[in-house]
Amino acid sequence: MRSKPGPSLLPGLYVHVPFCRKKCFYCDFYSVTEKGLEEAWLASIRREIDFYKDRFGGFSSLYVGGGTPTCLDDGKLAALFEILGRHLTFHADCEVTIEANPDDLDGPRCRMLKSLGCNRLSLGVQSFDDGELALLGRRHDAKGAAGAVEAAIAAGFSNIGLDLIYCLPGQTERSWRLTLERALSFKPAHLSCYQLTVEGRTPLSRMVSGGGLVLPGEKEARKFFLTTSRFLESAGFIHYEVSNFAASRERLCRHNEKYWRRVPYLGLGPSAHSFDGLTRWWNHRSLRRYLAAAVRGKRPVAGHETLSEEQTELEMLYLGLRTRRGIKLADLGARALPALSELRRARLVRVRGDRVAPSRLGYLVADSLPALLC
Amino acid sequence: MKQIRNFSIIAHIDHGKSTLADRFIQHAHLVDDRQFRDQILDNMDIERERGITIKSQTICLPYTSREGAEFELNLIDTPGHVDFSYEVSRALASCEGVLLLVDASQGVEAQTLANLYAAMEHNLAIVPVINKIDLPSADIERVKNEIDHDLGLDPDEAVLCSAKEGIGIEDVLEAIVNRIPPPSGSAEKPLSALIFDARYDSFRGTIVTCRVFDGKVAPGDVIKLMSTGAAYKVEEAGIFHLAREPRPELTAGMVGYIISGIKTVSDTRIGDTITLDASPVEAPLPGFKEVKPVVFSSIYPVASDDYQSLLEALEKYKLNDASLTYQKDSSAALGQGFRCGFLGLLHLEIVQERLEREFDQSIVMTMPSVQYRFFLTDGQVLVVDNPQYYPDPASIQKCEEPFIRASILIPDRYVGSVMKLCMERRGVNSHMSYPTPGRVEITFDMPLAEVVFDFYDRLKSITQGYGSFDYEIIDYRESDLIKLDILVNGEKVDALSVIVHRERARERAVKICDRLEEEIPRHQFKVAIQGAIGGKIIARSTVSPFRKDVTAKCYGGDITRKRKLLEKQKKGKKRMKQVGAVMIPQSAFMAALRTSDEE
Q1: Measured by CB atoms within 10 angstroms of the end CB, which terminus of chain B is less buried, N or C?
Q2: Can you tell me the mean pLDDT for B464-475?
Q3: Which of residues B387 and B50 earns the better pLDDT score?
Q4: Which of A99-103, B334-338, B545-549 has the highest mean pLDDT?
Q5: Could A218 and B548 be called an inter-chain contact, meaning their C-beta atoms sit closer than 8 Å?
Q6: Where are the domains of chain B?
Q7: Cβ pair B181, B97 in contact under 8 A
């Protein structure tokens, strides 16, 4: 354990870029395809900063996500970073991540991102199988994805994370394994492997409910999950969160860790969420509503809540039980002890020293662990 | 003075008893047509829903006959279930006659017959009424024939009506005044009045409903309840219209209420005789008996913090239901609760529903049990109604369980299946008689324990509703009784233990395990359910674990969405009981006791 809080416990900053060239079939994150609003968005980010610059300072991570940040042109990306750098303060050792679409990345683009100060790339590769990429409605193919990773490495990025999706309709364990192997061949620092979740009101959900697509069942999903975990851990990765793997302790995504460890973070842009340690608030999801608020000089906040002690405990429990770090044994009430011993017997959790953490099997049922232990 | 008639309506379920009563009330103009609610007399939610009457209701209907004479007609509505047969008998004892209601298309049913016998036992005048004559399927001639052949009554005396359409209502009322004898008795004799109902009013205390046979009673009198000897000063006496209506006195022949500072319903006894303290009657009215609970079950709050609130609810409930008994109880699995005694399984369900609905309690009930007797080697006799107190098997010399004599009336085509059911339930000494062609009366001696679970439900389903069932407890008989325990993941759930006959143990264990398997939700781990006698496992089932439920992504910084889902889960958990790490829903405890034999 660390003796003094390192940079990982300082606040994080998230900026939501709500623009995409094209919506992917499965995605329900907020984004629009109207390029005309980019300038207005930038101006609003600038205004939004004013509300918070005295409340948050010394960010040790910046995460530019979306949407598709890389669909902004070089000028607007530079403007964004210029605004952030001028009005907010960052720790010297700040993790700066930008989400990138492989289609938008070539050598010059990578060098440009590097020059803006980005030191971590999160690449939305999703798959190295062309059929699967088409199914997801992605703009790139497997070759394009490989090219983008190579360009990033050539530009000097050493901290590269790849996002992959599994449990797709028609996907076999073999094809998923090929994707994983291909991903490993680039020696990435980080892998996020998400099981496909069908969100309501997406084209994918319409395809599934229409019967055109059949998703793998619970049993297959479990197999995909376990295969992924075993395979990546045998390759030396640390399975540190349900869907996240790091090549080493130093490569954990510092920014995402803040969400799970309840470290304060500020979110800018439409639909972004913020947390100051006590209160959570979230911005308007609609870009128009977000812009309208900013123009009128109002905080573009759609809702907020101040957490009760009970809510705080529940959050600690559920977030902790999604990570390898787990929770403090002492944070569990006496009432949880019979359940805890049953979970240990079923090898769903492990107790190490003064902490309780889910095992690989425990990750599989992480959604229902908290209710059992509170 | 107005003339009086005291009567009750007896009918097979659905033959239109409540509707007819409603028409009488309308005819008497006791209520505005606009305010009229169907089935005014069944005013508890549960009664409306189940279409049965649980508490008796009484109403006094003013009526001017065609000849111009003025009457007060006291309609005494009776409960319609075997659990309350004693209350029914006291209500009937307060009448001089009954309307025997027969559905014009359904005809005479088994229950009609059983009702007729009950009325005959009380020497009541019987007026057959054929209802629903407006139905296209009505077959009045056939029904008259049945009244003649099956009931042995004069079919020409049957009155025709349709309560629903309001046809013939006055004919029925005329039959009441002309064919049901007026009450006998003398106002000059010492007071003797029969209590046939009592209910609690939060402002006035207990309101006793009674039939005055002799003498009179007025506010200011000091009355004495003969079974307890307790004396009370009468504050108010009166009759029931739709609301209570005070009268200067109640005299021989009248039916009405007395308010006299009796605190709770439990201080009164249904069937008891009221007399005057100063000039008591020599002997009480016949037929009084102390109603004793025969079925026992424990009630626990789902959340142990709610114990106090449950206690208060029981206290309040008990104000209005003298037949419920309760005392403190505790269970390793369920914590602090109450051991309760009931008149039967329906009574138990009513108490459960009312505690939940009217008193907003979240409760778990344990397997119902009867009262067993254990004769120990050291000469002691233990009376046990709670499996927790089942004695050390090595110390038991012999055990006994209560037996009932069941009498079942059915159309003869169901004899085979009903015999089979009774034999399965360890019935012995069967007798059959044929009171009328096509009808069979079967009597069986059966252990009460076999009847309290779902016997009546099964009987009704086997006979498609035609079977009627009544029983009396006859004696205790020697029996080979053992305690069956239920284990969930190796942990004994004492609330699910039952005392059963050795030969029925395995079958019961299998059913309980199967029902629990259906009711206990899937967990993150395997849940084993076992039935055991002593250390020996005799049945088992398994709830397989679910395989995966984790969502891939915790959305960016949106921690709230997921936490809200968990808060919902956590709330749901409050309605579960945790045994070790296994969450057992409240419904599982009730489901386990409905070990129905149905497919």
Answers
A1: C
A2: 79
A3: B387
A4: A99-103
A5: yes
A6: 3-179, 192-276, 295-365, 372-479, 482-593
A7: yes
Distance, CA of A155 to CA of B121 (rounded, Å): 105
Torsion sign, CA atoms B514, B518, B520, B522 = positive
Nearest CA among B117, B68, B57, B127 for reference residue B96: B127
* Local confidence band at B81 (pLDDT 50, 70, 90 cut-offs): low
Q: Quick one: A130 and A60 in the same domain?
A: yes
Same domain, A317 and A224: no
> Is residue B552 within 8 angstroms of chain A, CB to CB?
yes
Asked if A99 and A213 sit in the same domain, the reply is yes
Between B549, B559, B583, which is nearest A367 by CB?
B549
- B482-593 carries CATH number 3.40.30.10: no
Q: For B449, how many CA atoms within 13 A lie in the half-sphere containing its CB?
A: 26
Strand partners, B473: B404
User: Are A314 and B570 inside 8 Å of each other by CB?
Assistant: yes
CATH 3.30.1360.40 for domain B295-365: no
Query: Is the confidence at residue B53, as pLDDT, over 60?
Result: no
Cβ–Cβ gap A339/B578 under 8 Å: yes
Q: Chain B: residue nearest A274 by CA?
A: B557
CA distance B54 to A135: 64
CA B282 to chain centre: 33
Going through B480-526 in order, the beta strands assigned E by DSSP cover 481-488, 491-492, 498-501
Respond yes or no on whether ipTM tops 0.85: yes
A228-258 tens-digit pLDDT? 999 999 999 999 999 999 999 999 999 999 9
For chain A, the straight-line distance linking the first and the last C-alpha, in angstroms and rounded, comes to 26
Radius of gyration of chain A (CA): 21
Please give the pLDDT value at position B552: 76
What pLDDT is recorded for position A217?
A: 86
Per-residue pLDDT tens over the stretch B184-193: 989 999 999 9
Gap between the Cα atoms of A203 and A213, Å rounded: 11
A312/A262 Cα distance (integer angstroms) = 9
Of A42-56, A90-104, B490-504, B548-562, the least confident: B548-562
Distance CA A4, CA A157 (A): 29
Contact (CB, 8 A) for B161 and B129: yes
Q: Is the pLDDT of residue A44 over 50?
A: yes
| Chain A residue numbers touching B333 (CB-CB < 8 A) | none
Nearest CB to A343; choose among B550, B552, B581: B581
CATH class of B3-179: alpha beta
Q: What homologous superfamily is domain B192-276 in, according to CATH?
A: Translation factors (2.40.30.10)
Range of the domain at A99: 7-260
Residue A26, chain B, CB below 8 Å: the answer is no
Considering the domain architecture, whether residues A209 and A340 belong to the same structural domain is answered as: no
| CATH node for B372-479 | 3.30.70.240
């997801």: which residue's tokens? A136
Average pLDDT over residues B247-265: 91
> What is the spatial distance between Cα B519 and Cα B514, in angstroms, rounded to a whole number?
9
Tell me how far CA of residue B476 lies from CA of A190, B402, B404, B447, in angstroms: 77, 4, 9, 9
Q: What is the pLDDT of residue B594?
A: 62
B482-593 shares the fold of B295-365: yes
pLDDT of residue B296: 92
In degrees, to the nearest 5, what angle opens at C-alpha B45 toward C-alphas B44 and B48? 90
Contact between A101 and A133 (Cβ < 8 Å) = no
Direct distance between the N- and C-terminal alpha carbons of chain B, in angstroms, rounded to an integer: 62
The B244-246 sheet, strands edge to edge: B231-233, B222-225, B273-276, B192-201, B205-214, B255-259, B236-240, B244-246
* Residues of B in Cβ contact (< 8 Å) with A342: 489, 525, 580-582
Q: Which two tokens stand for residue A329?
A: 């044994």
